[in-house]
Specification:
The protein is mostly beta strands. It has strands spanning 2-6, 9-12, 17-24, 30-38, 45-51, 56-57, 66-71, 76-81, 90-98, 103-105, 109-114.
Length: 115
């Protein structure tokens, strides 16, 4: 199984980016997709999650600015990030969880927001 994120980059504060995550080789249905981020010197944190029923979760730090979506049958996940702030700077990781409780991570994509 391979999970690959793309779409990161450098953007000015107030700008937008859309991250894409593609999983290949999955043999079980996806139960949930999550996006996490890790800034230097900080722990990895969850920024968005969607389950197979379509229910979503966002922490207060990104609520109203980030939107997670999936193309379920294509095993592709997206994270639309609007009104980006310098504190959003981090490496962003995608996570697929299958209904067989398998857990797959991508290698991460860097997002840098300048003032």
């Amino acid at each position: 199984v391979q999970v690959v994120e793309s779409g990161g980059g450098l953007v000015q504060a107030g700008g937008s980016l859309k991250l894409t995550c593609t999983a290949s080789g999955l043999t079980f249905d996806v139960n949930g997709v999550g996006w996490y981020r890790q800034a230097p010197g900080k722990e990895r944190e969850l920024v968005a999650f969607v389950n197979s029923g379509g229910s979503t979760y966002y922490p207060d730090s990104v609520k109203g600015r980030f939107t997670i979506s999936v193309e379920r049958f294509a095993d592709i996940g997206y994270l639309q990030m609007n009104d980006l702030k310098p504190e959003d700077t981090a490496v962003y990781y995608c996570n697929f969880v299958t209904n067989a409780h398998q857990d797959y991570w991508g290698q991460g994509t860097q997002v840098t927001v300048s003032r």
